[in-house]
Amino acid sequence: MMEELRKVVNELLNELDGVVALRGSSEGVAPHLFRSGNDLSELVIVPKYPMASVLDLLQDADSDVRLGVVARGCDERALIELAKRQQVNLDNVRIIGIACSAEEAEECRCALPYPQNLMVGEKVQGVEDRLIAEHEALARQERLEFWKRQFAKCLKCYGCRNICPECFCEECVLEDELWAQTGVLPPPFPTFHILRAMHTVGKCVGCGECERTCPAGIPLTILYSLLRRDAKELFGYEAGASIEDRPPLVVTLDEVPIRG
Amino acid sequence: MTTDFEPRIIGFLCNWCSYAGADTAGISRFKYQPNVRIVRVMCSGRVSPELVLRAFREGADGVLVLGCHIGDCHYVSGNHRTAKRMPILRRILEYVGIEPERLRLDWVSSAEAPKFQQVVNEFTKTIRELGPARQVIQ
Amino acid sequence: MEYKNVLTTCVYCGAGCGLYLQVLDGKVVGVLPCKTHPISEGKLCVKGWNAHSFIYHEDRLIKPLIRADGGFREATWNEALDLIASKLTEVKEKHGPDAIGFLASAKCTNEDNYVLQKFARAVIGTNNVDHCARL
Fold it and tell me: Which of A53, B55, C48, C52 would give a disulfide with B10, using CB separation of 3.0 to 4.6 Å?
């Protein structure tokens, strides 16, 4: 699969200004802008990083640059959601879609481990998130104890917010003294965390990077997955499914009504 | 459950409908529970999740959000946002183990004084039965 | 356009988390955690996430300054260093090396703090070195 991917990227580098992909070297693995003539043997796909944010960054610097991006399903969905909010211009982006392996889908508890623009790799079946079912089975008091224990570990590093491909606000509510006081640790339970969760609604594409970068190991994806399910149940909305879908919380009930 | 507990409820009422409705209830001398501290906003659409959560953080045992009926919003579709946000916020409260009944969204027009009275009395009773939230929510 | 991630070690604290400085056209624009780093494993604390923010900060001193007339005036490196050396020597000779205290800071880089304590101990000859985290 990697040979095929490198071949595809190599060909596309003839028509694009660059391709954003992961570079593996003695310095580890990180996103990189490959140019024509670069050593593509360094192009790798694990461990995964959120690629959509890099696209956003590069397009901010030069809105006309034509870029390709090696994207998993979640990367593509993140790009679509960013494009919806005018943060990324998809006209200048060539999505080089790669499929996740069955092991990767299992690890991410991912329902859609492949992008629509799939170019390399075989699609595998999505996985149902069993942690949601386990969470729903808990009694209310158990849930309270669980999240109290989890969020007591929070360092307020803002890692979850920083790594999230959808968080692009220049002024974040979580840094506003009105809603989230400075100098308070751990952050107030549960209002701080509920606030972050609310802001993921209609945006979260389930990449799981928030949980992976949390130094305290808080299982954030349980909460955000539940909200993704709610967005589907209440508004029929799936983040990243189509650029035509309008974000449900922003539009009127005539455009996106409440179901059920 | 101690009977000394007096619920502290913050009510966000929209200027054009629900606040006027509360006014009408007052003028008509309707009796209702005194536990709701009313904050007048121009539209229920202004009531963001930040505002609701801040109310809880400051010690509210319950938060009541009242707006115009759908279709009657003075700003046309402001209450559409409220209609969508509040159910989601209630769900998150439930997921982290807080009773979603502590947050209530309802529609009260300027003429619906009896409805205002009913909603306030009902909600106060609900919160009284649920007990204080102050120890649980920060 | 050139974009790359440069691996480095966080300058704050002794943990030594690995992080990438995102470099776009020669300028550092952000930080990414290093997922393959044995210590940090793709996680960072709030200081690590903001390790780059002092680089181009508007408050950053870019010229030596000397106190004068209730404020500061710009000076050359030589003038500033000569002044510091002469004043410290004066105090050291008159009152001894322990008359001088050195205060390091968790807001400075590890490298800055290392140099400061080395200067205190090896050059001035005192162990009166402390750190804001100890206060």
Answer: B55
